[in-house]
């Protein structure tokens, strides 16, 4: 199936060479490989649109008729586009459409009969990527000489040219073939995701595709992911067990406990199993236990040679979002998404909000310390949001009550330890926005459709772990030296990737996300 319905493209510097304030169609020069790349996308059924800032109109550098002539020349050289969305304003006009605001993306999606989260936007500067993310769309940056290094570092995906950008889009589609669907139910299917809350939540769409063809779905999870497992649609039974090759602070391997787990799995009578893992984990220890438990068919992603442990050995290129990585495994195992399937994160039901709105949630903690914003910075963010007129609720677990009290101070409402995960889901669902690091509540916000200001420590790739298909703004130093280190504790003194976050930038991000929602 198509992961995307439409591809949106910036005009100047992406489709054609950037000639400042160009009103002359004779100066239109396509970027190398543009026509061939666009035709490949068209051939797959993807619809194409242009989203372009043209402040030259507001500044009187050219007229509407000249703009139409230039755009007509673009189509003459590059083929037809299904929609053109043009912002005629200058920055000072305060419009909703000028990138980095997401208005053009929402307008293009509506014109194409889809939604922003099913669009990918290709552009050459940070404004393009910011507009894509703020709309909930996917962004691919194709840098040029004017692209700033910081913009490259912060982009969710980077391609050297339009040809490569098209390759990325088509490769992600190829990972999710549609059907044939099973003519009969698959019986009992054991799905495995033994990580933390966020890991379990991002696997939810894949588990739903399995459940659509299975008679019964049993989820094997760890203690850290149990609360999220209880929220997932499609799960009929949960088996909770700590796995020493997964948990970050594991107990020693206990032969008796391992034998007990094998017995528990055998008692399930599972017809097959799908073992979901993160990109840095091996499924093979789990697969060995499943073989000992008598599971007849086992599917997993594995770069390591699996011998006879796997029946379906799937491989996924780096950089694919974790939710799509899991979906591709489900498809390889024989559980492809149905055409038009909802690929967003979801929970069974959204509880009623325990607080009355409007409000912004700030969640300062993180399950991995390297990904948490420094408490002092979080406290200044709360104070700045409150000064801007927002009611600010500060959330955290019972173990984080000292942190939430410090961060809330006198400006925010301290709700540390007040809710379990289900209660937090209700609180987030009614929030205008949540300010949070790369941790479970960020993915919970995505699962209830709440925009996210992501204070993102770059220890793991943003393109893989950003909140999936939800409007967001990324803040933090994307080029910090901890980038891609997978560090659990900050390896650099002073936590520079998040210590420099400007509270005013957080206020601006909240306002951008609030103003950017489609009418």
TrEMBL record:
Subcellular location: Cytoplasm
GO molecular function: hydrolase activity
Keywords of the record: Carbohydrate metabolism, Cytoplasm, Hydrolase, Metal-binding
Main localization of the protein described in the UniProt heading: cytoplasm
PANTHER family: D-GLYCERO-BETA-D-MANNO-HEPTOSE-1,7-BISPHOSPHATE 7-PHOSPHATASE
Family (UniProt): Belongs to the GmhB family.
The protein, known as: D,D-heptose 1,7-bisphosphate phosphatase
């Amino acid at each position: 199936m198509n992961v995307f319905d439409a591809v949106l493209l910036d005009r100047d510097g992406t489709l054609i060479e950037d000639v400042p304030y160009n009103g002359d169609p004779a100066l239109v020069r396509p970027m190398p490989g543009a026509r061939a790349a666009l035709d490949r996308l068209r051939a797959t059924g993807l619809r194409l649109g242009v989203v372009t800032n043209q402040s030259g109109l507001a500044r009187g550098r050219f007229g509407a008729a000249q703009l139409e002539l230039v755009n007509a020349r673009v189509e003459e050289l590059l083929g037809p586009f299904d929609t053109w969305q043009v912002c005629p304003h200058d920055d000072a006009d305060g419009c909703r459409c000028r990138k980095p605001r997401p208005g053009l993306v929402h307008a293009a999606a509506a014109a194409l009969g889809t939604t922003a989260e099913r669009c990918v936007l290709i552009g050459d500067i940070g404004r393009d990527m910011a507009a894509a993310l703020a709309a909930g769309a996917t962004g691919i940056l194709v840098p040029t000489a004017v692209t700033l290094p910081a913009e490259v570092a912060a982009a969710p995906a980077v391609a050297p040219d339009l040809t490569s950008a098209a390759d990325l889009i088509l490769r992600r589609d190829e990972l999710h073939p549609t059907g044939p669907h099973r003519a009969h139910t698959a019986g009992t299917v054991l799905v495995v995701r033994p990580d933390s809350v966020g890991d379990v939540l991002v696997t939810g769409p894949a588990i739903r595709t399995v459940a659509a063809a299975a008679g019964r779905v049993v989820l094997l999870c760890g203690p850290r992911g149990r609360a999220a497992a209880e929220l997932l649609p499609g799960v009929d039974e949960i088996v909770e067990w700590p796995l020493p090759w997964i948990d970050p602070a594991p107990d020693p391997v206990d032969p008796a406990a391992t034998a007990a787990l094998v017995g528990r799995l055998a008692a399930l009578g599972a017809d097959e199993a799908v073992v979901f893992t993160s990109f840095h984990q091996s499924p093979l220890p789990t697969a060995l236990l499943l073989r000992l438990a008598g599971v007849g068919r086992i599917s997993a992603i594995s770069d390591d040679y699996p011998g006879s442990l796997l029946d379906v050995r799937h491989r996924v290129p780096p950089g694919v979002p974790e939710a799509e990585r899991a979906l591709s495994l489900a498809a390889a195992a024989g559980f492809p998404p149905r055409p038009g399937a909802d690929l967003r994160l979801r929970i069974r039901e959204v509880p009623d909000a325990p607080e009355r709105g409007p409000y912004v949630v700030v969640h300062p903690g993180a399950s991995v310390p390297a990904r948490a914003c420094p408490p002092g910075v979080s406290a200044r963010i709360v104070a700045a949001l409150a000064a801007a007129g927002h009611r600010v609720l500060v959330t955290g677990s019972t173990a984080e009550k000292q942190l939430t009290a410090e961060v809330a101070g006198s400006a925010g409402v301290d709700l540390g330890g007040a809710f379990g995960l289900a209660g937090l889901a209700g609180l987030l669902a009614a929030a205008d926005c949540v300010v949070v690091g790369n941790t479970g509540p960020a993915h919970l916000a995505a699962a209830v459709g709440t925009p996210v200001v992501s204070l993102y420590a770059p220890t793991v790739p943003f393109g893989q772990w950003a909140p999936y298909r939800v409007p967001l703004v990324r803040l933090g130093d994307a080029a910090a030296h901890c980038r891609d280190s997978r560090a659990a504790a900050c390896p650099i003194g002073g936590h520079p990737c998040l210590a420099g976050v400007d509270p005013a930038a957080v206020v601006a991000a909240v306002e951008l996300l609030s103003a950017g929602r489609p009418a």
